[in-house]
Design a protein that fits this description.
- By secondary structure, the protein is an alpha+beta fold.
- It has one domain (4-135): Histidine kinase-like ATPase, C-terminal domain (Heat Shock Protein 90), CATH 3.30.565.10.
- The protein has helices at 16-29, 34-55, 107-115, and strands at residues 4-10, 62-70, 73-80, 118-124, 127-135.
- A hairpin with a 2-residue loop joins strand 4 (118-124) and strand 5 (127-135).
- It is globular, with a radius of gyration of 15 Å.
C-alpha cells in the first residue's frame, strides 16, 4: 500500500484545523497537485463538519482518517461511530432554482461528488465508513 497516513481526533469543531492540515500535508506528500489538495481539503472539511454537527448528536466521539496512494489514486477513508448516514442517498440540490427557493444544505455533498472521482459509503460494525478516491492529475 505504500505510505499510509493516519489521524485520530475527537469530534470537536476545534479539530477541523488539525484535519485540514493533515489532509494538506498528506496529499501533498503523496504527489497531488495544489488544486487537488485544495479540493480534497475542502471536501474532507465538509464531511468532518457534518460528522461533528450531525453525526454525534448527543455526545462526541472519534473521527479516524486514513490516506494512502494506490497506483495513480489518492484514497481517503473517514470513519466515525456517529448516527448512520449515507451521503450518497441524500437528495441532489436543485442548482437551477432561485436562491430564495432552495432548501438549505446538500451543496456540500454535491461538492464532494464533484471534486472526487468516486465516493463509497458503508455502515459496518457500528461505523460509518466513507471512502473518497481522487486520481492524481
Amino acid at each position: 500500500m505504500g505510505n499510509e497516513f493516519k489521524l485520530n481526533v475527537n469530534s470537536d469543531l476545534e479539530n477541523l484545523t488539525s484535519i485540514a492540515d493533515f489532509i494538506t500535508s498528506s496529499t501533498r506528500e503523496l504527489g497531488l497537485s495544489e488544486k487537488g489538495v485544495f479540493q480534497l481539503q475542502l471536501a474532507v472539511d465538509e464531511v468532518a463538519a457534518n460528522i461533528i454537527l450531525h453525526g454525534y448528536t448527543h455526545q462526541t466521539g472519534p473521527i479516524h482518517l486514513t490516506i494512502w496512494k494506490e497506483n495513480d489514486k489518492i484514497i481517503i477513508q473517514i470513519q466515525d461511530r456517529g448516527e448512520p448516514f449515507n451521503p450518497l442517498e441524500a437528495d441532489e440540490p436543485d442548482l437551477q432554482a432561485p436562491l430564495e427557493e432552495r432548501s438549505p444544505g446538500g451543496l456540500g455533498i454535491h461538492f464532494l461528488k464533484t471534486v472526487t472521482d468516486s465516493v463509497h459509503y458503508q455502515f459496518k460494525d457500528g461505523k460509518n465508513i466513507l471512502t473518497l478516491i481522487k486520481t492524481l492529475d
